[in-house]
Write a structure and sequence with these properties.
By secondary structure, the protein is of the alpha+beta class. It has 15 helices and 14 strands. α12 crosses α14.
Length: 477
């Protein structure tokens, strides 16, 4: 629950998230391809997206369908009537001198999604609106933006379909903002409406203030980590100004990712500055007669899949949440769980493999599911230890290879009990002080001796057998 009364210094954050619908075959109002990312600059253009006189926009139906899908997935109310407007402002990336967007008749309003709150527990973040608009061109600055000698303009991006998801100012920390973006990205990935790996696929404007203070806007942050860092910087900057008795200016700021700072761009515009008026070349749009069909076409979404994983596979809520945090990860789990005990699969994928991938900055596509199945089959057959299984996973991620070959090359097959017994006898003989401590009831000493045995067997001894033999030999519990 949000606090009804904010304390001085409380952080207030609202986000405007721009998502490119880059899986469509054409831009929002013309037939140009939005798949421009590997193309030469200014090669995906036409009179419509260049804003030439007399060119008329034709609305891409697929963009409307995708926007309604997103709005339904965000628990929004779809508006009966929606309208496009001209948002007037002059900037180099807008060849027409205005952007076709939506204003007081967006496609959807009043949604919400749940995130993990900074202080623990679940928080509901309200979605104020979802609307459709066209992407402006891309500016490339020579050097830092505030001292750039010139800028280049690439119109390939001009006119690509965007949806903008606007939250209420419900977020209370940079970490919570990043969590919100992770949840939103996951929903968009499940809906298959955008490819997040493409440059500029998701960009964020963040409005931030301290309770009772003036709001600033940090524009065009292009990475999840960048959002968290930009907000952290801006909070510290605003708190320092307040401490020194300097008034915070309502303004738009740019985030420089390389230097990790925000820079003043211009004073913040108000709605009236944009002189919105209805786009005369596009008729009002009603989508209510399509909502049921679109709703039925929605795929299984993360929350539904999480509940199914718990019920169908009997795994913990935590593991279900981790495994459904990415569509490809959830598919990976279901492939492995079709061959191996689901609880064992969930434990190894969520607790071990995911951690190893994160450590290396890799995605789940870097590890074939057949390798996970083979490793868990060998582990379940008690032919390798858990420590050896981790070693196999690390080797595949670092150098590649097949699990069976790695186990053979590294000699990771479990040692026989007779070999363990010999190592136990040696560890007891070499560590009389630990043996005495163990007999006096010190568990740490038993763990130390177990470590010595594992060291002698190069981690290939079954820990349960080592524990049993040590206790028998030392007659301790």
């Amino acid at each position: 629950m949000l606090k009804s009364r904010k304390e001085p210094g409380d952080v207030i954050i609202g986000l405007e998230v721009h998502v490119q619908l880059n899986k469509l075959n054409s831009k929002l109002f013309c037939g140009c391809s939005p798949k421009y990312h590997d193309a030469e600059p200014n090669t995906h253009t036409c009179p419509v997206c260049l804003g030439l006189p007399g060119a008329l926009p034709v609305l891409n139906e697929g963009a409307v369908v995708d926007a309604v899908k997103v709005a339904l997935a965000l628990n929004c109310k779809i508006e009966e009537r929606t309208l496009f407007y001209r948002k007037n402002y002059y900037y180099l990336d807008l060849p027409k001198g205005f952007q076709i967007s939506q204003y007081d008749y967006p496609i959807a309003i009043d949604g919400k999604i749940s995130v993990n709150g900074t202080g623990g527990g679940e928080r509901h973040i309200r979605i104020r609106r979802v609307h459709i608009e066209e992407d402006p061109a891309r500016l490339v600055h020579k050097g830092p933006i505030e001292c750039s000698r010139y800028s280049l303009i690439d119109y390939n991006r001009s006119g690509v379909a965007l949806i903008e998801v606007v939250t209420e100012p419900d977020l209370r920390s940079p970490k919570e903002a990043r969590e919100f973006l992770n949840v939103l990205r996951n929903i968009l990935e499940y809906l298959d409406v955008f490819d997040e790996s493409l440059e500029g696929a998701l960009r964020v404007d963040a409005n931030i203030s301290l309770a009772g203070g003036t709001r600033t806007e940090v524009k065009n942050i292009s990475s999840y980590r960048g959002v968290e860092k930009a907000l952290l910087f801006e909070i510290v900057r605003q708190k320092n100004l307040v401490r020194r008795g300097i008034k915070i200016t309502q303004e738009t700021r740019h985030y420089d990712e390389k230097r990790g700072v925000t820079i003043s761009l211009r004073t913040k515009e108000e709605e009236q500055d944009y002189r919105y008026f209805p786009e005369p070349d596009l008729v009002p749009l009603g989508v209510c007669n399509r909502i049921d069909d679109i709703r039925e076409s929605l795929p299984e979404l993360p929350d539904t899949k999480r509940q199914r994983f718990v019920q169908q596979y009997g795994i913990s809520e935590y593991h279900a949440k981790v495994l459904t945090s990415e569509l490809r990860l959830s598919n990976f789990f279901e492939t492995v769980a079709s061959e191996i005990d689901p609880i064992l699969s969930a434990t190894w994928i969520a607790d071990v493999l995911k951690g190893e991938l994160n450590y290396r900055g890799l995605g789940i596509s870097a590890f074939p599911p057949k390798h996970m199945i083979q490793i868990l089959q060998i582990l379940r057959g008690k032919n390798i230890t858990e420590k050896s299984a981790v070693q196999v996973i690390r080797t595949i991620l670092d150098r590649g290879g097949e699990p069976a070959d790695i186990i053979k090359q590294k000699g990771l097959i479990k040692v026989e009990e007779s070999t363990i017994a010999k190592a136990v006898a040696e560890a007891i003989k070499e560590n009389p002080a630990a043996v005495q401590d163990c007999r006096n009831g010190k568990n740490e000493a038993l763990h130390f001796l177990m470590g010595q045995v594992m060291k002698k067997t190069h981690g290939r001894a079954d820990p349960n057998i080592v524990n049993k033999l040590l206790k028998e030999k030392l007659q301790c519990t």
